[in-house]
Every structure is written in structure tokens, then in C-alpha cells.
């Protein structure tokens, strides 16, 4: 599968970094966040590493689990 362009990779990485920052601020493990968001732990890890292009509903789930709005994640 071809790699996304640099600007898209930066966007994925920035989103993942934001999720990680908020998760750590709450003192949650990846597993804790995954449970709260009804996602798999390895999926959360791949988001935080900037490896996933996250679907809108999963952004909503993550935001709710982190106690922020989807806008706060973006």
C-alpha cells in the first residue's frame, strides 16, 4: 500500500499526539481509553503512532472517552 503524502502523515501524527496527550493527562492507559471508547487497545496504539486514518465515529468515541469535543481532538 502506498504511503500517504507528507502533509497527510503529519496530520495523522498530530492527531495521534493529541490523543496521547489527553489520555496521559487523565492518567489512562491505552487499554483504559480503548475500553472507554469501545475500541481495541492495539487500534488506539496505532492511532497514537499516526498509523491510522480514523473514521468520524471513532473520533467521536475517543473524544467522548477523553471528555472533550471532537473539535478539541482536531
Automatic annotation (TrEMBL):
UniProt keyword annotations, A-Z: DNA-binding, Transcription, Transcription regulation
GO molecular function, one term: DNA-binding transcription factor activity
Pfam families: HTH_3
Keyword Ribosomal protein: no
Cellular compartments per GO CC: cytosol
Domain of life assignment: Bacteria
Signal peptide: none
Residue ranges annotated for the HTH cro/C1-type domain, each copy included: 19-73
UniProt cross-references to PROSITE patterns, sorted A to Z: HTH_CROC1
Record carries keyword Mitochondrion: no
Matches recorded under SUPFAM superfamilies: lambda repressor-like DNA-binding domains
UniProt protein name: XRE family transcriptional regulator
Organism listed in the record: Jiangella aurantiaca
